[in-house]
Amino acid sequence: MRRSGRPRQQILSMEKNILNSMAWNLTVPTPYVFLVRFAKAAGSDKELENMIFFFAELALMEYGLVTVRPSLVAASAVYAARCTLKRSPIWTETLKHHTGFAEPQLLEPAKMLVMAHAAAPDSKLKAIYKKYSCEQYGRVSLRAPAVAAPQRLA
């Protein structure tokens, strides 16, 4: 037996009216929302911040990360950036607390980001690589890809 879509439409319409009357704006969460908070938790300086955003933009091009939660992509960008810049410790209790992710959860997505960084100079799609090779972004894309934690990302 098939139900009529009418009650559903009425409920959705009423929800829309309520949200509009409260002046709410609903959006889809993107990694950027999480990046700002996670970068702050990482105690980022400008170089680390640029590297984090470089990895986050590389993630947009990675098919394997399309279905990954935006918060996990953002945390993985922080992890990959800290590995690339040889920050120690790579993952802290503070980062674990603020991101909600333990280091083992970040290894696969971070590995994908590091591999994308390694492949970027020879890629056909170089816009992100070129953008982050400019002085304005600290030339972070020109840094050697992460090998600081071979047991983790290798």
TrEMBL record:
Belongs to the cyclin family. Cyclin AB subfamily. Residues 33-115 form the Cyclin-like domain. GO terms for biological process: cell division; response to gamma radiation. This is Cyclin C-terminal domain-containing protein. Keywords: Cell cycle, Cell division, Cyclin. Gene3D superfamilies: Cyclin-like. Signal peptide: none annotated. The keyword Cell division applies. Pfam families: Cyclin_C. Residues 29-146 form the Cyclin C-terminal domain.
